[in-house]
Amino acid sequence: MAYVIVGAIIVGLLLYALWEPYWIQASEHTVAVPGLPAAFEGFRILHLSDIHGRVGVFSWAPFLRWLAEADVVALTGDLYSPTRSRRRLAERLSQLTAPDGVYYISGNHDYRNGQLSVEPWQPGESRIDNDVRVIERRGEKLWIAGLPDFVKGKPDWDKVRRELDENAGPAILLAHRPDAWQLPGIERVSLILSGHTHGGQVVIPGFGAPLRHNRLPGRYVAGRLDKPGHPVLITSRGLGTSELPVRFGSRPEVLLIRLTRGDEMH
């Protein structure tokens, strides 16, 4: 009898782990940005990461509502999966629009043989790997910068930092890996949006994620990290999976970040 119960529990956990990747969570954060111009009060960023070919989110009602409200869409890498249609996702990505732009930085799974490979989608001006862009409203400015994956890409933080230092005003950094939080001079930016970790993808209750996929202190794998002297770091658990198509205790998520004026971070 005991074996039957144990077997039933194992089967139940496995079925749940196969189902959880479809249980998307909508997560919201408000970030107070020192020196944020009044024109950007309430500025909204819709953040998608680690899609890995899953297109279901693009017809999900909360996502559609947030997309209609967003000022910017941020895509922090890992678009495709070898087991899912690239064409279907590329069509969805091509339809993304926002008043102040769609911005994309590449993740490790966006490279083949050392070269960026996101066809058939054409990111064009949306791609901001090692680039800095300015968003202007009523003569006031907000900067948005991007770094590609630290392993497969060729990040140039020195270049990005110089460009930011030459221009006054608050800045947001898109970086596929949350390790960007530890870069020298990272305090120049107010907010980092990242992904890559999938929140560990499998989280053991009472222990955490056995695989963290980052080198930050503690057992951080996703969510919000606040520390004096550092930018706010928000790491998405992403939407897809890699290797095994399971999640446990780490639901896929879509993020909406609102910026507000202030000298303290909420």
What features would you highlight for this structure?
single chain, 266 residues, alpha/beta, Purple Acid Phosphatase, chain A, domain 2, six-stranded mixed β-sheet, five-stranded mixed β-sheet, 4 helices, 13 strands, 17% helix, globular
Could you describe the 3D structure shown?
With 266 residues, the protein is α/β, with parallel strands linked by helices. The protein has a single domain, classed as Purple Acid Phosphatase, chain A, domain 2 (4-Layer Sandwich), CATH 3.60.21. The chain is built from four helices and 13 strands. It has helices spanning 2-19, 61-69, 86-94, 157-165, and strands at residues 25-33, 44-48, 72-75, 102-104, 111-112, 115-116, 131-137, 140-147, 171-175, 191-194, 223-225, 232-235, 253-261. The strands form three sheets. The chain has a six-stranded mixed β-sheet. β8 (140-147), α4 (157-165) and β9 (171-175) form a beta-alpha-beta unit. It is globular, with a radius of gyration of 19 Å.
Tell me briefly what this model is:
This protein has helices at 2-19, 61-69, 86-94, 157-165; strands at 25-33, 44-48, 72-75, 102-104, 111-112, 115-116, 131-137, 140-147, 171-175, 191-194, 223-225, 232-235, 253-261.
Which spans of ≥5 residues are poorly predicted at pLDDT below 50? none
Give helix % range: 10-25%
Oligomer: single chain
Structural class determined from secondary elements = alpha/beta
Q: Give the termini separation.
A: 52 Å
Major sheet summary line: 6 strands, mixed
The overall pLDDT, averaged over residues, is: 93
Number of helical regions: 4
CATH architect. name: 4-Layer Sandwich
Provide the domain count. Answer: 1
Spell the H/E element sequence: HEEHEHEEEEEHEEEEE
- How many distinct beta strands? 13
Can you identify the CATH class? Alpha Beta
Strand content: 15-25%
Task: Examine the coordinates and then state which fold CATH places here, giving the name of the CATH topology.
Answer: Purple Acid Phosphatase, chain A, domain 2
Report the C-alpha radius of gyration, rounded.
19 Å
Shape: globular
Widest beta sheet: strand line-up: 7-8-9-10-12-11
